[in-house]
Amino acid sequence: MTPTTKKHRLTYTCLSTICLLCNYNYASAFLTPTSSLQSPPRANIIHNPPPSRRNTLLPLSSTTEESSSSIINESHVAPIEEIERRRNLAIISHPDSGKTTMTEKLLLYGGALQQAGAVRMKGEQRATQSDFMEMEKQRGISISATVMSFDYGKLHVNILDTPGHQDFSEDTYRALAAADNAVMLLDAAKGLEPQTRKLFEVCRMRKLPLFTFVNKMDRPAMSPYEIMDQIEQEFGLETYPILWPIGDGDRFKGVLDRMNNVVHLFDRGDRKSKAEVEQVPMDDLATLEARIDDDELFEKLKEDQELLGELISPLDMERVMAGEQSPLFFGSAMTNFGVQLFLDKFCDMGTKPNGRLAKIQEEVKGKKAKEKANANSSNSDDDEADELISPNHEEFSGFVFKTQANLDPKHRDRLAYIRIVSGSFQKGMKVGHSRSKPGKKYNLAQAQTLFGSDRESVEVAYPGDVIGINNPGNFAIGDTLFTGNEKIAFPGIPSFSPEKFAYIRNPNPSTYKSFQKGIEQLLAEGAVQALRQRNDEGGGPLILAAVGQLQFEVVQAR
């Protein structure tokens, strides 16, 4: 192979490293028009380094941005009507409970898709919108949290599809930091599972309103009463059934909407398109009995309606918002049963964007800044976030909860996911940065709305929205961006303690720079953590630390 021109000097060196600058489609996007290259060798990962060697955390390097002395004095207050129409929802569950399928069907009924994809593609089925990485398509699991935004009626909805596998639970935890509502998906045949229990505790800690959707009712299922009892006994969480199932498995006919006292009967059809639904008032018993066409299910429906009305405490939205009561839904995302009903109820019942506690201090430059910084560092109480930043705060603020590289395989880009907490984002605005020196401003010249791997330029965004901004390396997970003369810092997002360790070595020493750059991008994403042996100043082998084995495989593939 002969080297290319100076302009393309990194072309073939990138192709022999572990992460290829984190390109999902491996090396194909980096080939020059005149190059003819073979597949790159994989980096060598050696698992379980000797336990006798003590490791210390590797500091994350960062880059700087040019300073700007200009200050924008225009108002950044978000219009109340725009705040009121925002809803966001994180979907959590144990693996294989149907999160990604549920996300896909919410997009279908929300009008964002014309045809739903499948997690495990067959024939002419297309891939799902949220699982766009090659490994996600091959394994049929979610590896990274994704954001999908769409308009539904008068509302603007942001869906966060999170990984269910415990090896990627750290990414789920970060996504929940950006959420105002969460829906817990349960497999109707299995009830509560280990990962569901862990994620529920995170939701409770963050005091998120929690909706519960019992999925896969088109298969043999546990009794609805048994599922309700399991949730209340293990979580201490009272449930209020909104949609009540009529049968299960092959006899699953539909659901009773207890809020409107209307039965929704479904016809099984094409899973890629919307289900055919017939609505029958519960009071019209003759029509209902004829349409259900199953005496046992009809009698049980009448019995359940009476029993639930007598025994279940009424729905209390204040308790729902406090996380003390959970609206309960039954349905099947695969066959589209109950999905639109859930989306409608969520839009009516879900909370609008909430404020966040933050630490606020006046930005001071020069010697006064150093004196104030020293005073703050000596007072630990100042580090606590004790002031509430509401969505209608007069200044813009938001925090980075996720970073990702090379979402577009044709470009070596990096994106920071920003959850807007207050104020209006406007294209070209200048913002302060919680970790930068006072007075330093960053120009947000470009921002995108997110729809899986697809992006669209956005001119303005409001509290509750998630936007992606180009990240030259300045923004890390947990950083706060803000406008105004007061420095705002939201609490950081903690990292999980690693449980698995492995060496990583570059198989080609001539590609040292590209290898290091790719590793830095993966570390910035939080894909893994990095350790070095004590007294190692950078020349020794790098040790990767992860929560689970699958994280190493993702790093090696990328």
Q: Look at the helices and sheets and give the structural class.
A: alpha+beta
Give me the side-by-side strand order of the main sheet. Answer: 20-19-25-16-17-24-21-22
Main sheet attributes: strand count, strand direction, barrel closure: 8 strands, antiparallel
- The total beta strand count reads 29
N/C terminus separation: 23 Å
**Share of helix, binned:** 10-25%
Percentage beta strand: 25-35%
Tally of separate helices: 13
CA-atom Rg in angstroms: 26 Å
Shape: globular
Mean pLDDT: 78
Low-confidence stretches: 1-42, 48-73, 116-127, 377-382
Task: Write the topology of this structure.
Blueprint: E1 44-47, E2 55-57, H1 80-84, E3 86-92, H2 99-109, H3 134-139, E4 146-152, E5 155-161, H4 169-177, E6 182-187, H5 194-205, E7 210-215, H6 224-235, E8 238-241, E9 243-246, E10 254-257, E11 262-267, E12 276-281, H7 285-292, H8 295-311, H9 317-321, E13 325-330, H10 339-349, E14 356-362, H11 366-377, E15 387-389, E16 397-405, E17 414-422, E18 425-426, E19 430-433, E20 442-443, E21 447-451, E22 454-457, E23 460-461, E24 466-470, E25 480-482, E26 486-489, E27 500-505, H12 512-525, E28 529-533, E29 542-546, H13 549-557
Parallel strand pairs: 3-5, 3-6, 6-7, 7-13, 8-13
Antiparallel strand pairs: 1-27, 2-28, 4-5, 9-10, 10-11, 11-12, 14-15, 14-26, 16-17, 16-25, 17-24, 18-23, 19-20, 19-25, 21-22, 21-24, 27-29, 28-29
Give a verbal description of the structure.
With 558 residues, the protein is α+β, with helices and mostly antiparallel strands. Strand 6, helix 5 and strand 7 (210-215) form a beta-alpha-beta unit. It is globular. The protein starts with 43 loop residues before the first strand and ends with a helix. The model is unreliable at 1-42, 48-73, 116-127 and 377-382 (pLDDT under 50).
